[in-house]
Design brief:
By secondary structure, the chain is α/β, with parallel strands linked by helices. It has 10 helices and 22 strands. The protein folds into 2 domains: 307 residues, Alpha-Beta Barrel (TIM Barrel); 93 residues, Immunoglobulins (Immunoglobulin-like), CATH 2.60.40.10.
């Protein structure tokens, strides 16, 4: 059953407001994600840089991730099976760490050829799985995952072994540096994953991960992972000039995401919270792997989490400005009035607070423009001559963030 309303999560790591929208949820699946190009012609590409298959601790074959990503409108997906954690190896001996990616690429090619539709960009990656710190790091845009695993390095398959593996005293730092250095030599991009365990109560990252950033062995950070978001990660991305990443961390089919969360964390998610998967919005010239990779290194990204955009001012402004368009017309039924239509060309509903000086006749100061729909505003006391020179309307975008708990403002000019 679909519901609407406002659900607020209070927690040490979840500080954004989760916004639930009428009709935004497709029962049992994630909804599609769609954004128009920016004003300067860049594509806004939804890409998921974190997913797992049966070749590590996931429960789906790689083809499932490809099929669902296409159905949700994603432009790309990275297969990032764990490098050192292989709980399914008794049934699926994973001697070749590139195998899940190869299966996914073949499926993407087959679907594109058979349907004549767009081709999903599949990205080769892995999750380097070490103790805390340094935690888990994704390396994406690799050429050979096998080279990141030293010969004879322990690979774990039992939960009991994995818990021991999380002990920081067991971290082999030379081996970790070797794996990250090999990833960089391959042109890889390195992301600090689900970093909540790496920050202290004051929101400070541990010295080990800070050192990796200083050494150029961490390029981005997940500010949102699955169903969680963290202010401290967003603040660090801005402070240390890291690329802002949002990722699903899917281990199961999207229809079973809430069940996986309950099994793993004991948390029951309301069905309405699953409006779309958490992704990175990549602003790139093209949708191919090289363009997506270049945009990551240029930090031209924002995270999309629970119908909220998290990013730097330039990227957030480009995304929101590209999604919203305003048209002004004479109100033929009422002299001296103008009709303003705000068109939303994206799938994300926008929560806007009007901050202009001219009084609005038909709405309060806060309004919601649904995804792929328009919103009408009536403005009184506007002559025909004034309508031609009406100042742009200014809004604060309440479901966008350019710093922790800081919303951007946008001015909508008129298309007549």
């Amino acid at each position: 059953m679909r519901k609407s309303g406002l659900w607020i999560i209070f927690s040490s790591t979840l500080t954004l407001v989760t916004l639930l929208w009428p009709g935004a949820v497709l029962a049992g699946e994630f909804a599609q994600i769609e954004f128009p190009a920016t004003a300067d012609g860049r594509l806004v590409l939804p890409v998921d840089f974190h997913s797992h298959t049966v070749f590590s601790d996931g429960v789906v074959w790689p083809t499932v991730h490809v099929e669902r990503a296409l159905a949700e409108g994603l432009a790309g997906i990275a297969i990032t099976d764990h490098l050192e954690y292989q709980p399914n190896r008794a049934d699926i001996p994973n001697r070749d760490r590139n195998r899940s990616y190869e299966i996914a690429v073949a499926e993407a090619n087959t679907l594109a050829q058979s349907s004549g539709g767009r081709r999903l960009t599949v990205i080769l990656g892995t999750e380097i799985t070490r103790g805390n710190p340094p935690g888990h790091l994704n390396a994406v845009f690799l050429t050979d995952v096998n080279r990141l695993l030293p010969k004879g390095y322990p690979v774990y398959s039992e939960d009991a072994d994995m818990l021991k593996f999380y002990d920081r005293s067991l971290v082999n730092w030379p081996s970790l540096h070797g794996a990250l250095s090999t990833a960089r030599q391959q042109g890889g991009f390195i992301i600090l994953n689900h970093p909540s365990a790496q920050f202290d109560a004051q929101g400070k990252l541990n010295e080990h991960n800070l050192a990796l950033i200083d050494e150029g062995l961490t390029n981005g950070i997940e500010v949102a992972n699955g169903w969680t978001y963290q202010d401290a990660a967003f603040a660090l991305a801005l402070e240390r000039n890291l690329t802002i990443i949002g990722a699903s961390d899917l281990h199961d089919a999207p229809a079973h995401f809430d069940q996986f969360v309950k099994r793993w964390a004991g948390v029951t998610l309301p069905q309405e919270s699953l409006a779309h998967r958490t992704v990175t919005l990549v602003l790139a010239q093209k949708g191919d792997a090289a363009s997506i990779r270049a945009a990551l290194f240029a930090r031209s990204t924002a995270a999309l989490y629970e119908n909220q955009i998290i990013g730097r001012p330039a990227e957030v402004d480009a995304i929101v400005s590209g999604a919203l368009r305003a048209t002004i017309r004479r109100n033929e039924s009422s002299k001296g009035q103008a009709l303003v239509y705000i068109e939303n060309r994206s799938s994300v509903p926008w929560l806007l607070q009007y901050v202009g000086k001219r009084p609005l006749l038909s709405v309060s100061e806060i309004l919601t423009v649904p995804g792929k729909a328009s919103y009408e505003i009536v403005v009184d006391g506007v002559s025909d001559d004034e309508r031609a020179h009406l100042e742009p309307f200014e809004f604060e975008v309440l479901n966008a963030f350019i710093a922790p708990r800081v919303h951007p403002r946008i001015k909508l000019g008129w298309q007549r």
